[in-house]
Amino acid sequence: xxxxxxxxxxxxxxxxxxxxxxxxxxxxxxxxxxxxxxxxxxxxxxxxxxxxxxxxxxxxxxxxxxxxxxxxxxxxxxxxxxxxxxxxxxxxxxxxxxxxxxxxxxxxxxxxxxxxxxxxxxxxxxxxxxxxxxxxxxxxxxxxxxxxxxxxxxxxxxxxxxxxxxxxxxxxxxxxxxxxxxxxxxxxxxxxxxxxxxxxxxxxxxxxxxxxxxxxxxxxxxxxxxxxxxxxxxxxxxxxxxxxxxxxxxxxxxxxxxxxxxxxxxxxxxxxxxxxxxxxxxxxxxxxxxxxxxxxxxxxxxxxxxxxxxxxxxxxxxxxxxxxxxxxxxxxxxxxxxxxxxxxxxxxxxxxxxxxxxxxxxxxxxxxxxxxxxxxxxxxxxxxxxxxxxxxxxxxxxxxxxxxxxxxxxxx
Length: 412
What we know:
By secondary structure, this protein is of the alpha/beta class. The chain has helices spanning about 10, 15-25, 35-45, 60-70, 75-80, 90-100, 115-120, 135-150, 160-175, 190-200, 220-225, 245-255, 265-280, 290-295, 295-300, 315-330, 345-355, 390-400, and strands at about 35, 45-50, 80-85, 105-110, 125-130, 150, 180-185, 205-215, 260, 305-310, 335-340, 360-365, 375-385, 405-410. α7 (about 115-120) links the parallel β4 and β5. α2 (about 15-25) packs across α9 (about 160-175) and α17 (about 345-355) packs across α18.
């Protein structure tokens, strides 16, 4: 008989996922899987969205956390559980642990934003702040595990957690059995391990595509042997994992067809599109699947694609920035830099051109000192809004014809 300890594939099967579903189904939301007509038109594929951002904690993570909690012995429940996480796993584990009467300790880096600490404490978690990095917090959590006889619940590198995550695919195929492709975000690999296990059992020919942020291609590098640069400020912090799981790596190697990398502009556009079109708030990691489809349309043309929107926990200020940047990329917001003479009436004369073109001025910034212009000159930056890029282009052309030196400040 195969030793399960040496055969990760035997630790995560369709039977494990089905058993997890039976365990958790009454305590998590069977979120809808809905067809997006507009996103299908934009991408050229048939796009079906699984709204996991509608879970109580706004993320799929509570599925795996709950499954792991329900498999604890009475003694383990009494002692409590511990995890290292500053993300959705901390909230899912805290919420269901508190609901079940299991003490939950979450170790977070001391640099964790206060809002994440408060959200975890609000659903019953006992937060311990330690260290400057996740690695520091993780090491401290493992030390507390030993000291207190607690049970460590890993956010992804655990068969029981992955089995719970796999129930996402079970529900998707129950609601839409005609899907022939799933595009799934990868951080540590728990979600795609569970979902690919279901897909391979129920629809062996289904294509399973993983997605990582270009800034954090850890699983891609681990499986391809390409040592790509790692690190940076990504919108998809939920999948910004430096070291992918060992267990999940083995599952993904056998059950996932390919891993795509997506850039920050595509992640930002996807978050904005989901809010504008589907009227749903999705965090950067949750929008990674759509970002991959948008940036690889030829790969997915004509396919019936399932996209799990795996989380909706995004800071409101960050969301506002993403939306404004998306308007700028579309040309509906613009920032124009113009050289003016520092004399009465100059700004009024310039503003009349905006009025003629129906372009609204939002902000005006004057700079008299830090310029290369003569002392009687100034630089004026004007932020404005228009119907589209063509309207702004026409305004700029007229300004140049009138003798103004002007250029548009573009997003990187």
